[in-house]
Design goal:
By secondary structure, the protein is mainly beta. The protein has one domain. It has one helix at residues 2-8; strands spanning 19-23, 43-53, 57-60, 71-73, 77-79. Strands 4-3-2-1-5 form a five-stranded antiparallel beta sheet, with no helix packed on it. The N and C termini lie far apart (46 Å). Residues 17-81 form the Tf2-1-like SH3-like domain.
């Protein structure tokens, strides 16, 4: 069973400076609770990786208004891919 499960898994690693989306869950982060869970964006970003903490955790540079911990497990991160046709899209 394990060998079949491992075939579908992929090992994700990021380098310092890589841009990622961060998965935000309203249950875990109290600063997001005033809004109904269906209205909260699941992934927020794109933020740069500041460094690796342990084997599967990364420190991410977040804006101070989020007021959440800066270290995330790799399963809460998703790589950001810039659109070559519209490089400014997604920037605020």
């Amino acid at each position: 069973m394990k060998k079949w499960a491992d075939k579908k898994r992929h090992h994700t690693e990021y380098k310092v400076g890589d841009m990622v989306f961060v998965k935000l869950l309203p249950k875990k982060f109290k600063s997001l609770r005033p809004v109904h869970k269906g209205l909260v964006m699941r992934y927020k970003g794109h933020f740069p990786i500041l460094g690796k903490v342990g084997k599967v955790s990364y420190r991410v540079e977040l804006p101070p208004r989020l007021k959440i911990h800066l270290v995330f497990h790799v399963s809460y991160l998703k790589p950001y891919h810039e659109d070559k046709n519209y490089p400014s899209q997604g920037m605020s």
